[in-house]
Amino acid sequence: MQSNPSVVVYGAYGHTGGFVVSELQRRGWTPILSGRDAAKLDALATEYPELEMRPASVDDAPALDRALQGAAAVINCAGPFASTSGPVIEAALRARIPYLDVAAEIEANIDTFALYADPAREAGVVVVHAMAFYGGLGDLLATAAMGDWTSADEISIAYGLDSWLPTTGTLVAGQVSRQRRDGRRVVFGDGKISYVTGAAPVVEWNFPAPLGRQQAVSEFTMADTVTISRHIQVPEIRSYMTLAAVKDLTDPSQKAPTASDASGRSSQTFVVEVIARRGGEERRAVASGRDIYAFTAPLVVEALARVVGGQVKTPGVLTAGEAFDARDFLASLSPGHLSFDIR
Ligand SMILES: NC(=O)c1ccc[n+]([C@@H]2O[C@H](COP(=O)([O-])OP(=O)(O)OC[C@H]3O[C@@H](n4cnc5c(N)ncnc54)[C@H](OP(=O)(O)O)[C@@H]3O)[C@@H](O)[C@H]2O)c1
Q: Which residues contact 335 (CB under 8 A, 6 or more apart)?
């Protein structure tokens, strides 16, 4: 790998984009800061006087082409991805460079696989989609838990968040998804996504210590359902989210996450437990860490390093579990960013 190759961060001035820029620098890459708002990019110049700013809006293909010129890859952190992933993927395909994103909008995730799998394969470009806390981590844990199983009867994913102070991007992505769902909820059963009405059931989930037994909303379907079902044969995927986090997310007076230390991370903690069941046998993977937004940065930057380093041989639109050796990938994030256990 050449020294300090440059990587475009689209949505660089967003909350998650900021963590990605810092992580890229920490690992010796040179971020190129991009996004649709030139003034917001300029405001970053005081923090990053040495970095190049390349404004581009998603409806301006020539500007996106200029933004990606000479870069080794692009990481898209600008959501709603229903609006941004198509144009930025198309620019990456024209530039013939890898594309990674942190998308967590179920319908947009499905569209991205459907629309860009063939064009990316034909262009010989690796697209790693939903390479984030939602969409990436659960998929890696499910893939690692499965081990040598090629199919399972059921996969359960339980998200144990002690709180969830959402960013504006999360709230807007949620609004976009809700509009598409017209008041319905997403579930995964009989091997496919479907929509149901009525309130999701609340159950008890026994998370590993220190969280322990918690009330959890079941059928809290997230992007991991889309990514896991892309490559693991499993008819039932059940998702659970701590009730406390759901209450935070839907509280209209809720504030955005704030830094609790010099790294910018909030004090939020997470534990994600994935259980794969086949017949009477269960395989389990558990991971814990801090701040789902900040954690997304080491996840996507590690993926970038592996893609640009040539470890992913198959072009196309891939999930984390498809693209990488899941156990090795999780191990690379531990101990600095993640604790995990596979049984
Ligand atoms: N999968 C996961 O676990 C995960 C983790 C973190 C983030 N995310 C997703 O990443 C996205 C960003 O989250 P965030 O926390 O960084 O939120 P944020 O701080 O509100 O940042 C949102 C970013 O998206 C940009 N943006 C919005 N609409 C755009 C458009 N049409 N064209 C170009 N840029 C646009 C914003 O630019 P302006 O300021 O110019 O509007 C801003 O840079 C959200 O969709 C969120 O759901 C997912």
A: none
- Distance CA(110)–CA(193), nearest Å, equals 10
In tens, the pLDDT along 103-125 reads 999 999 999 999 999 999 999 99
Which of 167, 239, 266 has the most ligand 1 atoms within 8 A of CB, as the residue to mutate?
Answer: 167
Q: Smallest Cα–Cα separation from 24: which of 262, 301, 300, 265? A: 301
Cα 205 to averaged position of ligand 1 atoms, centre (Å)? 31
CA-closest candidate to residue 102, choices 271, 330, 298: 298
Q: Whose CA is nearest to atom 42 of ligand 1?
A: 14
- Summarised one tens digit per residue, pLDDT across range 32-83 is 999 999 999 999 999 999 999 999 999 999 999 999 999 999 999 999 999 9
Q: Which domains, from first to last, does the chain contain?
A: 6-133+296-332 (3.40.50.720), 134-292 (3.30.360.10)
Ligand 1 proximal residues by C-beta, below 6 Å: 11, 13-17, 35-37, 40, 58, 77-81, 83-84, 102, 104, 132-135, 167-170, 173, 223, 292-293, 296
Number of other residues whose CB lies within 10 A of the CB of residue 86:
16
Atom of ligand 1 at shortest range from CA of 104? 1
| pTM summary value | 0.97
Question: Across the chain, where does the E strand assignment appear?
Answer: 6-10, 30-35, 53-55, 73-76, 99-101, 126-128, 154-161, 185-189, 192-196, 202-206, 213-218, 236-242, 269-278, 281-290, 316-318, 339-342
The number of residues in the chain equals 343
**What average pLDDT does the segment 15-34 reach?**
97
